Structure formats: C-alpha cells, structure tokens
Amino acid sequence: MKMRKMFKVFSLILITVFAVSTLVSGQEEKKEDVSMNPDGTYSSTKYNEAERPEDSYLAKFHAQDVVAKLMKKNLDQIYLLKVIVSNFKEKGWEEEYKKCYAGYKKAMDLYYKRNIIYSRVEFENNKKDISDLLKKITDEYKKETQTMLNDCADKILLLHLDEKTRSDPNKNKELHLNQMRLRISYGQFDDALSSSIDKNYETAVYHYRVSKTYAIKIIEELATPNETEGIKDKYKIHKADNLNRIFETSSSGGGTKTPQ
C-alpha cells in the first residue's frame, strides 16, 4: 500500500515537471516567433529581455492606436519627401528617401500580417527616419530662403533710393507692396525657424515654401529686363516645389506634375 502511494506521488511529480517543461518551451517558441530580424524573419536574437517590446493585450490595444495614426502621417510625409527629393536630385537625398519608403513598406507588411506590436515598432522607426531626412531638408531650405531674402532686401533698398520712387506714384506703390511682401516672407521664415526648434520639420518645410514664394515674387517684379529670363530659369524648380509639384523637363521647355 505504501509503495503504491509513493508510485502515485512520483507519477504526479513527473506529470507536473513535463507540463511545466512544455509550457516554458511553448513560451520560448512564442518569443522567437514575435522577434524580428532586419530581413523580416523572426528569431529571439534581435531583442534581449530588457528591450523586447511588451506583447500584452494592453500593449496591443495601444499599438493599434499608434499604428492607425502613423500609417497616415508617415505616408503623407513620404509623399512630401518624394516631391522634394525629385525636385532637388543634386542634394543627394535619394538613398535616405528609399530607406524611408522601405521602412514604411516593412511596417505595413507586419500590419497586414496582424503583427501589430512589431508593426508599431517599425512605424516608429520609420517616423524617426522621415524626421531625420526632413531636418536635413529644412536646413537646406533655410539657407536657400535666407539667400533669397537677402536678394529681396537689396532690390527693395535700390528701389527705395531711386529718385523716381519719390516722384512716381506707381513706383511708390510698388515699393510699399514689396515691402509688405518682404515682411510677410520674413514672418514665415521666423515661423519656420520656430517649427524647426520644436522639431516639427514638416511644418517648417511649408513655412519656408511660403517664404520663398513671396521672395521669388519680389525678385521677379523688381528684376531688370536683362535679368528676367535668368531669374525665370533660376527659380522654376523652386516655384514648382512651393506648390508641392515635381518639376519635369520636357521638349517644350519644362513642366510640373503632381506625384502619384
């Protein structure tokens, strides 16, 4: 009788050990399934236990909200990047744009596979890559806009010093109109700087574009007849970009298109 009881106890211990072993093994396999390598495959090697994203029900709930927002926001910004990178190929932003595009595609692939936790991770990584490229673009826009504004200030000063401006009502009106445009342009430039400080680089791009639009208008209106053609050619890409269009050369001399 005593031997039979001992056998039952021993059997229960074996069953318990086997069940716990199976559960732990299953959990380890689950960890391997959800961890993602750069090539899109899964393993447990990319994240250690301190870094591996939480995979709870609550984490999935929050991930759904983040993914829904970034899915649209990141796509809108990639559209903006496509226009800018296409217009200013000489700046060398093409590879960084491709990285942003590929990152968005990877995040969407995970979303369609219902791996919402790692879709969120990739969307957030994609957001950072987009922000880094937009920062470089705003730095370049800042330099270009500042150059245009300096040119505007020089032209308005010459108009102000022109003796005809004092006697000709039309010249005087032209002076005041372009002074107003210059104030607006500088105001947009300041707003762009503030947006950049706040790391809102997309908004900064739009402020710089408005600033450049007013600056180019001033430069065109105050150009001499000999300068007109050169100015038209110099700023044609900027004018298309300010309208969020891709400038394309054609047999007729140039054109714009809205990116698909």
Summarize the structure.
With 260 residues, the chain is mostly helical. It has helices at 2-34, 57-87, 94-112, 116-161, 163-167, 169-197, 201-221, 228-234, 236-242; strands at residues 246-248, 255-257.
Number of strands: 2
CATH topology label of the domain at 138-257: Butyryl-CoA Dehydrogenase, subunit A, domain 3
Helical segment count? 9
Helix content: over 70%
Major sheet: arrangement of strands: 1-2
Oligomerization category of the chains in this entry? single chain
Please report the distance between the alpha carbons of the first and last residues.
83 Å
Helix/strand order, N-terminal first: HHHHHHHHHEE
Overall pLDDT level: 82
Briefly, what CATH class of the domain at 138-257?
Mainly Alpha
The largest β sheet comes out as: 2 strands, antiparallel
- Secondary structure category: mainly alpha
Roughly what fraction of the amino acids lie in strands? under 5%
Task: Give unreliable regions as ranges.
Answer: 13-35, 39-45
Indicate the overall shape.
elongated
Compute the CA-based radius of gyration.
30 Å
CATH architecture descriptor of the domain at 138-257: Up-down Bundle
Name some characteristics of this structure.
260 residues, mainly alpha, Butyryl-CoA Dehydrogenase, subunit A, domain 3, two-stranded antiparallel sheet, elongated
Would you mind describing this structure in some detail?
It contains nine helices and two strands; from the N terminus they run H-H-H-H-H-H-H-H-H-E-E. It is mainly alpha-helical and 260 residues long. A two-stranded antiparallel sheet has the order 1-2. Helix 2 packs antiparallel against helix 3, helix 2 runs parallel beside helix 4 (116-161) and helix 3 (94-112) runs antiparallel to helix 4 (116-161). The longest helix has 46 residues, at 116-161.
